[in-house]
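User: Study the fold:
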Amino acid sequence: MNNNELRRAQFAQEYIEAQKRKRNQVLGITLTITLLFVGFFIWETSGRYEDSNSGNYFFENIPDYSGQKIEMTKIDLRVEDGLVKIPLSVVGENKLIYTEYKDSTERIYYGNLKVLPIITYISSAGRLIIATGICEPCYGTEFTLENKELVCQTCFTRWRNTDLFGLSGGCVKYPPEELMYSLEGGSIVVPQDVLSQWKPRIFQDEMSNT
C-alpha cells in the first residue's frame, strides 16, 4: 500500500470516527432535552402545588374530573365570632361550592354586587382552594370544573385549577383570588375581616397604571 492509499485510508477512518462522535453528541443532546421535557411535564401536571398565600389542605382522595363538568352547589355561609365557616364535608361531597358573604355595612363589592361571591373547590391535585367567586373583567360569578380547568361561564376563560394559572380567554390575568384559610373543627375558616376589606384587583391595577 503506497502513501496515497495510506492517507486515504487514514482520512476515511478519521471521517468515520468524527461521524460517530457527532451522532453521539446529537443523541446526548436529544436525550437531555427529552428528560428535561418529561420532568417539566410531570411537575406541571401532577406536582403537589402549594401556595403560602392561601391554604394547603389536601384531600386523601384526589378527584378525577376527566370528561366531566362539575357545576357549583350553592350553600348558605355561616359567620361566628368574626369567622366565616364552610363545612369541609360539604366540599368533599360536592367538589365545587358557591356561597355569598354579606357585610353588615351594606357595601357594594363590585359592580352592583352587594355580596361577595365565594367559591370553594377541590383541585385536580387534591388541594382545597377557597377564592373570591368573581371573574373581575367580565363580572362573571358562575364557574365550572372541567377536566383540569376552572372555567368562567360568562366569558369562558380557563385557568389551571391547581394554581389558577391562566390558559385561555380574555380574563386570564384576573382569576378568582385565592384566600388564606385554616381548618377548625371540621370547618374551613376565613377571618371575616379578610372578606369585609376585599377590593377588586382590576381597579387597583388601573389606578397604578394611570
Remarks:
- The longest strand covers residues 116-122.
- Confidence is low (pLDDT under 50) at residues 38-47.
- The CA atoms of residues 4 and 14 lie 15 Å apart.
